[in-house]
């Protein structure tokens, strides 16, 4: 018999309830008993939700949902549930307090622990209960497992500790895509195309991506040995790598599009984003930048403070940037520009799409509401909720929505989520073309969600930021999807570097600008690429009527193939640039070869000028000369 057979409700109740009501449940329960920790965790999650969520929450609904989740995947199918503490029919059950909720759940937990088979994983059942507890809340209030928490912390802290490579697992082998500039691997001469086949003298063939991360990441100063096979070299190369702190950059690319136009792409708002953005702007200004295209497409957000700091850079001191509203006074605030932004006079275009959310919408919403620049692209995601993260006793975390944010005009851009989390998440895939989507959206916006910018233009709440200039061009076709789905691009570029890497570097490595404009795939390379597509299931036939997927194959005609081939060829050119020069060189080629959005934006500076004149006219009316 295990310890769980002898647990009694009174023992755990005394411990948990004492912590809950006396010390605010912020200390970890004494001892290491799994059941005590689990019950402590349940109580803490419920308390945090009740105390912090932006909306009033029913404790009874939290409890009932948690119990339904708790029993949903019980492995012991013979266990009696009816008329036991696990019964979810809830006849005449009323839960009015955290104490009642915890006591009832404790009975259910201990009933399962004491009556199920040895194989019942109580940690997993507790996680099921917590996940279900979040179901009635908004889609951004979630439970995060310990291993996921660590990865997310790395992504948003702006750094991790490891050997400093970007990699893919291709044909069961770890392939180096690129060594991060000036990191430990780069300093030792590890380069794109290298295959890591051994880690610490043991084979790494067949490793999953998670296995690679677990093996190669580690504390700064520790060492790991890797065995590398390099194309063209018959001998195994052994490297002893001392792990170090590796930066995770959030500015993907910054460069001059022409003599006066700078371009910066930001992939998320992490701890280092404003610092990176400032550095990128300084470098562009040394190249005589006079105007900026800020690319926030597919940027899902992140730290509110970082988004606010970037927004501040475009406005004079005192300008309203964003506000947060909550039922809790401590989470309600207004953010105004704290300093005169160094770029407050620079002409500005902000690129957005349906993947732009949260922090991206804070930046673009403020720019639009104050008529400060032109927002271009597709309607944004529509996430106007702010979360706070809380750590739990086992290093897992919960993220709870604590407030809603409002743009300077007062609009809430959060889209509806009443139809459930899945429909909410996938709503962006159900949208029409950009123009059709916006027309349909505006048609259904009630008067209460229509607002005015500083210059009197109409803008809309309740579903993201509607761009000032809509771009209705699709850049992804079926052939592109097929290529990515089957990883044809990575395999092709890897083999190209194997065959021609030395020759390519000799010709192009010091001539990236010429590579952008002059390099094109030879007929031999195009045919080799097509052969890979055919091998993976591309079927070209004159009998095909429409391009379509069927049984993992893609069917199209010769003319359709010719029409769709340009984007995949441009994409593998960009992938080649990334592997030879580094990640920041990928987007210049993508913007040249695949994505027309930037080129379209370059034609819109007259609209930016008109917008500035409109804003100035309003300001002159408000503050006429004395």
Walkthrough of the structure:
The chain is 41% helix and 18% strand. By secondary structure, it is α+β, with helices and mostly antiparallel strands. The strands form 6 sheets. Strands 3, 4, 5, 6, 7 and 8 form a 6-stranded antiparallel β-sheet that branches. Strands 10-11-12-15-16-21 form a 6-stranded mixed β-sheet, sandwiched between helices. A hairpin with a 5-residue loop joins strand 19 and strand 20 (458-460). It is globular. Residues 1-32 have low confidence and may be disordered.
Helicity range of the residues? 40-55%
Low-confidence stretches: 1-32
Alpha carbon gap, first and last residue: 90 Å
Beta-strand content: 15-25%
Q: Rough shape?
A: globular
**Structural class, from secondary structure content?**
alpha+beta
CATH-assigned fold name of the largest domain: 2-enoyl-CoA Hydratase, Chain A, domain 1
Q: What's the count of strands?
A: 24
| Rg result | 28 Å
CATH architecture of the largest domain: Alpha-Beta Complex
Average pLDDT:
89
Can you say what the CATH homologous superfamily of the largest domain is?
2-enoyl-CoA Hydratase, Chain A, domain 1
Helix segment tally = 22
Indicate the multimeric state: single chain
- Quickly name the level 1 CATH class of the largest domain: Alpha Beta
Q: How many domain units?
A: 4
Question: Mind summarizing the main beta sheet?
Answer: 6 strands, antiparallel
